[in-house]
Amino acid sequence: MKFIDVNFLLSVHKLSQLPPPTLPEIAFAGRSNVGKSSLINVLVGRKALVKVSGRPGKTQGLNYFEIEDSVYLVDLPGYGFARVSKGMQDSWQSLITSYLETRSTLCCVVVIMDIRHGAKPQDSQLISWLKQQGVPCLPVYTKVDKLSGNARQRHAAALDAGHTIDSRQRILFSAKSGQGKEELERALASFAKID
């Protein structure tokens, strides 16, 4: 499936605002500034559907995008460093946790990590927590164009080891070159059980 014909649906700030659970949902999670917005824009073939910001903490709700009346893509607020109050971060965390624990139509969480940085505890915690909850997750290492072939393989192997990930269960991705886009499309269509 090509993730085109996409429309912004709504931004959710409390669980009561969630749309009816009628379509499969794929959520995108990651630390602030790992390339989450760029990845979603490349996936849907639009330059600025999701606003890309150099300022951590730009996404402040669960942003819903509807694809061809068949699947929702859900952009979650970035975790980690963000220029917002502690209260705001706690509020996001509570909303995200409740969403991930209770959303019956959630079929996959794409956990996005910058390949240039070592394994971060927050990413490891999220991946293991998702496994405990029985929520499928797909690790994606972004910004692979910023490293040469050998360095890319070394960094990917270090992240695999740091997060106990099998290399066949993650995707290397570049928003700049498009590397990994087709592999990501196939994986997400499989999780959402759509053609």
Question: How would you describe this structure to a colleague?
Answer:
This protein has 195 residues and is α/β, with parallel strands linked by helices. It has one domain: P-loop containing nucleotide triphosphate hydrolases (Rossmann fold). It is built from 5 helices and 7 strands; from the N terminus they run ββαββαβαβαβα. The protein has helices spanning 36-44, 86-102, 121-133, 149-163, 181-192, and strands spanning 6-12, 25-30, 62-67, 71-75, 106-114, 137-142, 171-172. It has a 7-stranded mixed β-sheet, sandwiched between helices. Helix 3 links the parallel strand 5 and strand 6.
Short description:
This protein is an alpha/beta fold. The chain is 34% helix and 21% strand. The mean pLDDT is 88.
Provide key terms for this protein:
alpha/beta; 21% strand; single chain; 195 residues; 7 strands; 5 helices; Rossmann fold; seven-stranded mixed sheet
Task: List strands and helices in order, with pairings.
Layout: E1 6-12, E2 25-30, H1 36-44, E3 62-67, E4 71-75, H2 86-102, E5 106-114, H3 121-133, E6 137-142, H4 149-163, E7 171-172, H5 181-192
Radius of gyration: 16 Å
> Outline, from the CA principal axes?
globular
- How does the major sheet shape up? 7 strands, mixed
**Intertermini distance:** 5 Å
In terms of DSSP E residues, the strand content is 15-25%
The number of helical elements comes to 5
Give the number of DSSP strands.
7
Instruction: Indicate the CATH class.
Output: Alpha Beta
Secondary-structure class? alpha/beta
**If strands are numbered along the chain, what order do they take across the biggest sheet?**
1-3-4-2-5-6-7
Mean pLDDT equals: 88
Extract low-pLDDT stretches.
Answer: none
Reported CATH architecture: 3-Layer(aba) Sandwich
Order of helices and strands: EEHEEHEHEHEH
Write the CATH homologous superfamily. Answer: P-loop containing nucleotide triphosphate hydrolases
The CATH topology is what? Rossmann fold
